[in-house]
């Protein structure tokens, strides 16, 4: 039965205001992700490879086609901008894929969390191919701060811009997407990874979160596509492999891991302590209703999509 909640039930997400706690919750969430391609728990590295399987190929293909006929195409560094790169677990893999085609990459990393940047730097140091092939330019700031300080920056263009699960944070997509599109070189590619509307987590979050409430805006691939359609911007969408989120611990009040996962799923800091009991129970009720038992665990499906936009020669996205 479809549950209709009054909009007064909506959360005003507090988790992103606490960067340290946010990182712990995101780590716990990633630990609860299981790739459905197998019944056993997969390592995060393997899961990332699966998730990126098509994405690297799409980028290389699009950029390769763009560069056909240009001289010399491959020897110039490919310019990449990462938006909300986190600890680089996803982006680092993507850059490795691109290094298969492009010998040198310049990567400007926009990430507000100093702890995440330090983890990303450690990842690079441990990986000679990234350390040698990519010139990193670390910027500890939000996209909005970058945009505000971007006086001459509009002349500085990028061949690839990636925003992997970061579109929810900060400003509205209606402001960010045109800005990022206009930062692309002609034929450059903008890549968003975000939740699909089909996943169980979306079925829970859409009652409590909204695109109009800052902190964590409830966006899905469909919402982004509607915006691009309305703006007459072409795009491609690829659906990633299905994941499960193991939410069993969320229902055990003694579980610290469960508390962190709950904070991430709701984007409410200290969900168990700080969210009023009525809303808490509503949220947990919907979580249970959408979850299904797999053995002795409770799982939500988690579907993500990748939406890519390639800049058309001469086209400006009206900001
Ligand atoms: C869900 S995590 C995704 C991290 C990484 N891209 C990944 O896929 O693993 C969202 C990231 O966006 C960053 N972030 C939050 N607000 C941001 C903003 N306004 N501009 C840019 N990045 C932001 C967070 O610090 C966090 O690292």
TrEMBL record:
Xref: InterPro entries: SAM-dependent_MTases_sf
Highest taxon in the source lineage: Eukaryota
Protein name: Histamine N-methyltransferase
Originating species: Patiria miniata (Bat star)
């Amino acid at each position: 039965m479809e549950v209709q909640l009054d909009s007064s039930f909506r959360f005003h997400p507090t988790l992103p205001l606490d960067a340290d706690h946010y990182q712990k919750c995101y780590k716990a969430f990633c630990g609860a992700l299981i790739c459905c391609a197998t019944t056993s728990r997969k390592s995060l590295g393997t899961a990332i490879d699966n998730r990126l399987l098509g994405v690297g190929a799409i980028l290389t293909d699009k950029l390769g086609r763009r560069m056909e006929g240009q001289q010399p195409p491959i020897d110039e560094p490919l310019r990449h901008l990462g938006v909300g790169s986190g600890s680089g677990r996803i982006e680092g893999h993507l850059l490795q894929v691109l290094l298969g085609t492009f010998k040198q990459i310049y990567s400007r990393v926009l990430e507000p969390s100093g702890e995440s940047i330090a983890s990303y730097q450690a990842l690079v140091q441990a990986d000679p191919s990234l350390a040698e092939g990519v010139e990193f330019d670390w910027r500890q700031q939000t996209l909005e701060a970058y945009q505000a300080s971007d006086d001459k920056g509009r002349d500085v263009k990028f061949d690839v811009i990636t925003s992997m699960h970061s579109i929810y944070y900060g400003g509205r997509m209606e402001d960010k997407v045109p800005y990022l599109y206009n930062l692309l070189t002609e034929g450059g590619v903008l890549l968003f990874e975000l939740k699909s509307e089909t996943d169980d987590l979306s079925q829970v979050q859409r009652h409590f979160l909204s695109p109009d409430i800052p902190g964590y805006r409830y966006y899905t691939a469909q919402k982004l596509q509607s915006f691009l359609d309305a703006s007459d911007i072409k795009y491609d969408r690829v659906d990633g492999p299905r994941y499960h989120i193991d939410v069993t611990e969320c229902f055990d009040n003694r579980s610290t891991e469960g508390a962190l996962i709950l904070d991430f799923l709701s984007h409410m800091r200290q969900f168990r302590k700080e969210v009023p009991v009525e809303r808490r129970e509503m949220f947990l009720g919907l979580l249970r209703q959408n979850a299904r038992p797999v053995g002795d665990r409770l799982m939500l499906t988690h579907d993500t999509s990748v939406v890519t936009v390639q800049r058309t020669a001469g086209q400006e996205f009206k900001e």
